[in-house]
Amino acid sequence: MIPGSFDYHRPDSVGAAVKLLVDFGDGARVIAGGHSLIPMMKLRMADLDHLIDLQGINDLKSITVSGANVTIGAMVTQHELIANEALFSMAPIVREAALQIADPQVRYVGTLGGNVANGDPGNDMPGLMQCLDASYTVVGPNGSRDIAARSFYEAAYFTERQDDEILTSISFKSKKGGYAYEKQKRKIGDYATAASAVLIEKDGGNCTAASIAMTNLSDTPVCPQEAAAALIGTALDEASISAAVTAAVNAIDPAEDNRGPVEFKKYVAGIMLRRAIERATARA
Amino acid sequence: MGKMHVKLTVNGKQVETLAEPRELLIHVLRENLNITGPHIGCETSHCGACTVDMGGKSVKSCTVFAAQANGADITTIEGLGTPDGLHVLQEMFKEHHGLQCGFCTPGMITRAYRLLQENPDPTEEEVRFGMAGNLCRCTGYQNIVKAIMAAAAEMNAVKEAAQ
Description:
The complex is a heterodimer of chains A (about 280) and B (about 160).
Chain A: E1 7-9, H1 14-24, E2 28-31, H2 37-42, E3 50-53, E4 63-66, E5 69-73, H3 78-83, H4 85-90, H5 92-98, H6 104-109, H7 112-117, H8 125-131, E6 135-140, E7 143-148, E8 153-155, E9 158-159, E10 166-173, E11 178-184, E12 194-203, E13 206-215, H9 225-229, H10 238-251, H11 262-283
Helix pairs in contact in A: 10-11
Chain B: E1 4-10, E2 13-19, H1 25-32, E3 51-54, E4 57-60, H2 66-69, E5 73-75, H3 88-95, H4 105-118, H5 124-130, H6 142-162
Parallel strand pairs in B: 1-5
Antiparallel strand pairs in B: 1-2, 3-4, 3-5
């Protein structure tokens, strides 16, 4: 299980990394934690001539909280997301979701940037970032631009990021209210059979804001506005929750695989979403 | 690309070896440096038998390129204890029958070492959650958890006595 040969580069700035990507073109790829890319390279499903390791770029490793704004460098690991108290106070759903990713060893190494940039429908963070309405900053030869997480994903492994761009940070505004990340998986370390991220704000007994996203139930994350709309303005009663679940299940398009047939996945998706809404409501 | 110089600190000793960037850390440790404590189990980052401590983190050395590890400080099972002076985790695995065939044990103990550094007084549930990246096909985990809980208690008792 050894990949094909490549040249290894460890630049110390984003600018230097982008230059390497431009110089080497199609044969080059960046590596963050590597726990998606290295297995693909071992299977020779990813074949590259130049590996550009981002571990030497310290600018990509910090979590910054300023007022209501949270900015997380692309190389921040899942382990660091879990441990960071400032982040937890601003968006506790991030810790709850990160704890459900892979296993301890993988979380020490796996990064937020890698998780969101890879475009793997099985990854948990893309759906979560859509739920948080986060924005990604990518830097390329023509400078930097911001892309909304909700419009970043085009298809499995295809995103708005161009090949000569590097995703450098993830930003979102702090979320008040209740939250929950519910994930059904066959075993520790597995991707979700179905997972759901929910944020709910209440005023008195009424829902004033809601956000819902679903993971691994289409070839991109699904963030059904009609499902959130079914909750907003209601008392989060049984009928409203059922309407939201129905709307979300209608919005997904799961494929049959070794995690089960389509009908089963839709069923599990409904259960995960209902649990997440109920738990977020109880916390709001 | 040809071979590159890979400098590592392994169990406190500085070493340098030649490796292709594509070689995995587990292979460099075992084949170049003759550090055969970390085992190759699945080689797909599932089983945890290859776990080493790198820069204060438990990592699966089958999913790290030698080139990525260049400059890193690594501890393996060989660095935790010796046959004459077992680490308390090794002592407790022996005491509580935390192993049968022993294949997963170096990874288990190396991972448990970091877990107890971060959380010196874990609950049984925290031990199970913290050890979830290591598979054992013999014991059913019951005695592994017991051994780690006992090692934590022993390490804490020693610390208290020293104060």
